[in-house]
């Protein structure tokens, strides 16, 4: 076909040879095929037929040959045989019928069994339905349980997250606590360091050691050594108090200041004759000693940095100073103690609180004296040649007075401040004008000052082993000197006192004896030796006049009395 | 083209009426009847003569029956040639039906191949197809076929199923359009004038110049004697499938449509009958 299409010749030529072939083929088939087709078919059929006929002819010819007798006998024989065959067949029929019956019965049985099985099947179906119902129920229950379980799981998860959060918070809190503790410890450490190094003063009240861990509000064994001795003083006091009660001081603002308070006045001081108690009161030398206004309390201050309170009631130990104590004074109203310290500060305690209430800092060298003044003010004198006035309410310095020399002690009397100096001068200052209004000569370094309760006489102690009593009345400033054989001023801060009735002077000597002079005669009244083994640094006469306390640099305190 | 399909059918269903006669020398129990049969031109003698064998076995003794062979006017007929070729070559111009003598003795071993079973015919047929495809497509098509495809070709021939055969044979007749035909045309030219069995050479369907080769070109190249010159009386007939195609018929078309099932174009050259 493709060749035909490709052929370059004309269509007529192309169809010619094709038509020729087709025609030739048709002609060929006509001649060779169609003419003979039927003929040959018929012939074949005839051939088959003749062969069949031949075979039949053969069959017929063969039995015709024997005689009729023999054929009869053969027939009889055949008949017999047939009968036999019939009998056999009948027997077979009977046998088969029996088999059929057996099969029938089997069939019946099977039918019955089948019915039984169907019944059972029905039963099983029913039970299956029931079971299916139960399965459905159980599934539903399971679904419900599952949902419950899911809810519970959810709640548990929520609880767990809450627990985790709480744990986290707990850990945070713990961390905070630990931080706080660490800060506390750090504070304490710095405090301890400061105390040890003695080089830096507390800078402000806020940094004052609030968290002093070892501070013991109630010392385990409050020293009550003087109890028996002081037991009678309140009785005397109360009897006198009623007579002499008066309002003292010009209170400005403080409620506390407005309160009336009794001031004991000693009518006659008793001359001490013997030592009632001898006590190793401090761990190091004692620098200062002072009775309170009710004579019930005795405060001692030593190089061991502590102020110790002795006697009835609120005995205790006041700490907070980082250096040795140089001077102690009780608040005239009683509940507070003021102390000057080597650590360039002055400290104020309440008696019931061992931690300083106020720390006054600002001096550049050690503070040698601290006294209560009017109007809730405090005056301090220092080795830095200044005297400062402090407002206790604001806890700040309100005035600085340049005093030209080392101030060893000072006394407040009304608006006057009297200060003693190492240059051998006693200066009188007016706090209102802030200027020196008087300069009194002394004979050497002034170690201490004291003023009589009636504010008429000023006692000064000098390093020239002489006590000097100045009459402050008028402007004459008469001076009386008191000396004694053996009396020797032991240090630059030896403190001498005037007895509460103003009749005696008491001072400790370097030889360890307490010397008492009579003011009116000017002679040595008595000498109390042998109790101290080293230089006496301070003495204090109780405001009630009954006791004298002397302290020395070798830690010993001795209570003297006439009893 | 419907015509081409008809040609294929005509070629496939070409028949030759034949009368088989038992050889006179055979010993028979009784007289043997002749057996008439329409032989398919494209098939092989041993493939379609089972009935003949059965027919003559009835009359000869079984112990005398050896391998059956055929003879026409003294010429043993080669069963491995297609029947149509045998007829065209030996008996094309005789009176029909074609009378073939059947022998059961004295098998001419020198002239004929033994054919003990149909599998031998199948092997011969398949080898012819492979040879033809080697010429046409370098064996590519036939090698791509599966075993069952080969079987389909053979079964189509054996059971005379035209559609079954051509469904597969169609592939063997394909060629790339740009080539314009097969590589070589598988053909064989038979003649009776010499001892040479047939002529088979490589011949292309298209000349190197691009012209389509025709049957005449082929004969001129292979067997010029077969062609008569101008003015001379025709001496030879070129017969394919019992017909004489025009010499101008393209060779490629002939190969596609007038080839035997073995894919060869069998061409017989016979002398023109004198009368």
Largest sheet, spatial ordering of strands of chain A: 1-28-27-26
CATH topological fold name of the largest domain in chain B:
Ubiquitin-like (UB roll)
Distance between the termini of chain B: 39 Å
What is the second-level CATH architecture of the largest domain in chain A?
Answer: 7 Propeller
Secondary-structure arrangement, i.e. CATH architecture of the largest domain in chain B: Roll
Give the name of the CATH superfamily of the largest domain in chain A: YVTN repeat-like/Quinoprotein amine dehydrogenase
Largest interface (CB within 8 Å) is between: A-B, 34 and 41 residues
User: How many helices of chain B does DSSP assign?
Assistant: 10
Quaternary structure classification: heterodimer
Low-confidence stretches of chain B: none
Instruction: Domain count of chain B, please report it.
Output: 3
**What is the CATH class of the largest domain in chain B?**
Alpha Beta
Q: How does the major sheet of chain B shape up?
A: 5 strands, mixed
Please give the share of residues in helix of chain B.
Answer: 25-40%
Organism (chain A): Eleginops maclovinus
WD repeats (chain A): 279-312, 318-352, 360-400, 417-439, 499-527, 529-563
Region (Disordered) (chain A): 191-230
Protein name (chain A): Autophagy-related protein 16 domain-containing protein
Q: How does this model look, in words?
A:
The complex is a heterodimer of chains A (563) and B (275). Chain A is α+β, with helices and mostly antiparallel strands and 563 residues long. Chain A has two domains: 80-197; 227-561, 7 Propeller (Methylamine Dehydrogenase, Chain H), CATH 2.130.10. Helix content of chain A is 37%, strand content 28%. Chain A is built from six helices and 28 strands. Chain A has helices at residues 2-6, 11-64, 68-197, 227-230, 233-244, 255-258, and strands at residues 274-280, 286-291, 297-302, 307-311, 316-318, 325-330, 336-341, 345-350, 358-361, 367-372, 377-382, 386-391, 396-402, 407-413, 416-421, 425-430, 435-441, 446-451, 457-462, 466-471, 479-482, 496-498, 504-508, 514-518, 524-528, 536-541, 548-552, 556-561. In chain A, the strands form seven sheets. Chain A has a four-stranded antiparallel β-sheet with strand order 1-28-27-26, with no helix packed on it. The N and C termini of chain A lie far apart (166 Å). By secondary structure, chain B is α+β, with helices and mostly antiparallel strands. Chain B has three domains: 13-103, Ubiquitin-like (UB roll) (Roll), CATH 3.10.20.620; 117-174, Serum Albumin, Chain A, Domain 1 (Orthogonal Bundle); 177-275, Ubiquitin-like (UB roll) (Roll). In chain B, strands 2-1-5-3-4 form a five-stranded mixed β-sheet. In chain B, strands 7-6-9-8 form a four-stranded mixed β-sheet, with helices on one face. In chain B, a hairpin with a 6-residue loop joins strand 6 and strand 7. In chain B, helix 7 (147-158) packs across helix 8. The longest helix of chain B is centred in the middle third of the chain and has 20 residues, at 118-137. The two termini of chain B are 39 Å apart. The A-B interface holds A 1-4, 6-9, 13, 16-18, 20-22, 24-29, 31-33, 35-37, 39-40, 43-44, 47, 50-51 and B 1, 3-4, 6-7, 10-11, 13-17, 33, 35-38, 55, 58, 96-97, 175, 177, 180-181, 205, 211-212, 241-246, 248-250, 252-253, 256, 258.
């Amino acid at each position: 076909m493709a060749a035909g299409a490709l052929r370059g010749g004309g269509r007529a030529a192309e169809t010619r040879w094709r038509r020729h072939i087709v025609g030739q083929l048709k002609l060929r088939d006509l001649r060779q095929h169609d003419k003979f087709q039927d003929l040959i078919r018929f012939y074949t059929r005839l051939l088959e037929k003749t062969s069949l006929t031949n075979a039949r002819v053969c069959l017929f010819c063969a039995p015709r040959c024997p005689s009729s007798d023999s054929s009869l006998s053969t027939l009889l024989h055949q008949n017999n045989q047939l009968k036999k065959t019939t009998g056999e067949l009948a027997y077979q029929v009977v046998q088969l019928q029996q088999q059929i019956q057996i099969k029938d019965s089997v069939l019946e049985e099977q039918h019955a069994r089948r019915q039984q099985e169907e019944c059972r099947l029905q039963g099983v179906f029913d039970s299956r339905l029931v079971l299916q119902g139960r399965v459905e129920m159980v599934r539903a229950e399971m679904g419900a349980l599952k949902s419950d379980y899911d809810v519970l799981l959810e709640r548990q998860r929520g609880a767990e997250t809450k627990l985790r959060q709480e744990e986290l918070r707990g850990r945070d809190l713990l961390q905070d606590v630990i931080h706080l503790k660490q800060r506390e410890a750090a504070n304490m450490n710095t405090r301890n360091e400061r105390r040890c190094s003695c080089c830096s003063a507390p800078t402000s009240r806020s940094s004052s050691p609030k968290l002093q861990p070892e501070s013991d509000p109630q010392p385990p064994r409050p020293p009550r050594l003087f109890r028996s001795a002081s037991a009678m003083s309140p009785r005397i006091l109360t009897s006198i108090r009623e007579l002499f009660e008066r309002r003292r001081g010009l209170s400005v603002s403080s409620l506390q200041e407005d309160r009336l308070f009794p001031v004991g006045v000693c009518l006659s001081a008793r001359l001490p004759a013997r030592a009632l108690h001898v006590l190793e009161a401090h761990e190091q030398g004692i620098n200062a000693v002072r009775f309170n206004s009710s004579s019930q309390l005795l405060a001692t201050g030593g190089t061991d940095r502590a102020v110790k309170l002795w006697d009835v009631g609120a005995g205790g130990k006041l700490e907070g100073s980082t250096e040795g104590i140089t001077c102690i004074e009780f608040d005239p109203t009683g509940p507070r103690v003021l102390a000057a310290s080597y650590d360039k500060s002055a400290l104020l305690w309440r008696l019931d609180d061992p931690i300083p209430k106020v720390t006054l800092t600002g001096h550049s060298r050690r503070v040698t004296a601290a006294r209560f003044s009017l109007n809730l003010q405090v005056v301090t004198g220092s080795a830095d040649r200044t005297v400062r006035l402090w407002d206790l309410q604001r806890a700040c310095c309100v005035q600085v007075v340049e005093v030209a020399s080392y101030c060893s002690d000072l006394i407040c009397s009304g608006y006057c401040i009297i200060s003693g100096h190492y240059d051998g001068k006693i200066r009188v200052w007016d706090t209102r004008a802030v200027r020196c209004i008087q300069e009194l000569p002394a004979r050497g370094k002034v170690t201490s000052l004291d003023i009589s309760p009636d504010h008429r006489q000023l006692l000064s102690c000098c390093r020239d082993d002489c006590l000097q009593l100045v009459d402050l009345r008028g402007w004459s400033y008469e001076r009386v000197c008191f000396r004694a054989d053996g009396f020797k001023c032991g240090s630059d801060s030896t403190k001498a006192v005037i007895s509460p009735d103003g009749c005696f002077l008491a001072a400790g000597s370097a030889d360890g004896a307490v010397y008492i002079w009579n003011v009116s005669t000017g002679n040595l009244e008595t000498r109390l030796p042998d109790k101290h083994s080293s230089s006496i640094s301070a003495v204090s006469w109780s405001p009630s006049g009954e006791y004298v306390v002397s302290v020395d640099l070798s830690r010993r305190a001795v209570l003297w009395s006439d009893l | 083209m419907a015509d081409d399909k008809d040609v294929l059918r005509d070629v496939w269903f070409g028949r030759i009426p034949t009368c088989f006669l038992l050889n006179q020398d055979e010993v028979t129990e009784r007289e043997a009847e002749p057996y008439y049969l329409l032989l398919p031109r494209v098939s092989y003698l041993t493939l379609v003569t089972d009935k003949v064998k059965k027919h003559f076995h009835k009359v000869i003794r079984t112990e005398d029956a050896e391998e059956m062979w055929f003879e026409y006017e003294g010429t043993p007929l080669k069963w491995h040639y297609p029947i149509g070729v045998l007829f065209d070559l030996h008996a094309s111009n005789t009176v029909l039906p074609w009378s073939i003598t059947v022998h059961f003795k004295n098998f001419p071993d020198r002239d004929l191949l033994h054919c003990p079973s149909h599998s031998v015919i199948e092997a011969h047929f398949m080898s012819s197809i492979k040879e033809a495809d080697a010429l046409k497509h370098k064996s590519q098509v036939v090698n791509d076929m599966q075993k069952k495809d080969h079987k389909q070709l053979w079964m189509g021939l054996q059971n005379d199923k035209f559609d079954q055969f051509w469904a597969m044979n169609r592939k063997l007749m394909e060629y790339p359009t740009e080539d314009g035909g097969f590589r070589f045309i598988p053909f064989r030219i038979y003649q009776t004038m010499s001892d040479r069995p047939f002529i088979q050479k490589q011949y292309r369907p298209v000349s190197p110049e691009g012209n389509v080769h025709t049957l005449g070109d082929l004969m001129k190249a292979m067997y010029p004697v077969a062609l008569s010159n101008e003015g001379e009386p025709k001496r030879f007939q070129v017969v394919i499938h019992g017909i004489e195609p025009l010499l101008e018929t393209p060779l490629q078309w002939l190969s596609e449509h007038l080839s035997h099932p073995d894919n060869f174009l069998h061409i017989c050259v016979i002398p023109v009958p004198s009368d």
